[in-house]
Amino acid sequence: MQNFKLKTVTNIIIAITVFMYVVQISIPNGTIYMGLNIYFIEGSFWWQPLSTMFTHHGIGHLLMNMFVLFQFGNLIEDYKGKATLLLLYFVGGLLTSLLSFAYMDLFSAYANLGGASGAISVLFGYVALVDKYQRKGIFIWIMLISFAPLLIGLPVAWYAHLIGFALGWIIGMIKK
């Protein structure tokens, strides 16, 4: 059984994300400034590919993402180290943001993306690659979180989930 450690990189990322959510909801139009949207280009909001990873559309969204990050982030950190977690989460998350924006731009499907889901999907892709026993379950999970909300009319950046998953898989193949 894994020993719980309070000061892990994962838990620090979670604390920063919760703090940034408080900042986001405390400033006027915080979700627009910190999410990833058309202002990335039109307003030169260059920070958005990073800040979107800390922006959430409600407390439920934040809690769900942080719960999953706690599980998968600490798992990767324990078994593959802090450097692997940081590479996957931040480099993978930034690439997911940029590729998601490219998708929105290509299809004129602009939205205001927010959430750690893209970066967390990178972790999913990585774990699915390196742990063949969890692969099928993670693949089903990524499909559920990407498409089930659409069936009941909830907006979800399904493409960010799939891009993140693919990037996690690719990064894992490169790191082998």
Structural overview:
The chain is an all-alpha fold and 176 residues long. It has a single domain (9-175), classed as Rhomboid-like (Rhomboid-like fold, Up-down Bundle). The chain is built from nine helices and no strands. α8 runs antiparallel to α9. It starts with 8 loop residues before the first helix and ends with a helix. The mean pLDDT is 96.
Descriptive labels:
176 residues, mainly alpha, Rhomboid-like fold
CATH top-level class: Mainly Alpha
Whole-number total of structural domains? 1
The unreliable regions are none
Termini separation (Å)?
26 Å
CATH architecture: Up-down Bundle
Series of secondary-structure elements, N-terminal to C-terminal: HHHHHHHHH
Cα-atom Rg, whole angstroms?
Answer: 16 Å
Query: Based on DSSP secondary structure assignment, what is the total number of beta strands?
Result: 0
The CATH superfamily appears as Rhomboid-like
Share of helical residues: over 70%
Q: Give the rounded overall mean pLDDT.
A: 96
The shape is globular
Main sheet characteristics: none
What fraction of residues sit in β-strands?
under 5%
| Helical/strand content category | mainly alpha
How many helices in DSSP terms? Answer: 9
CATH topology: Rhomboid-like fold
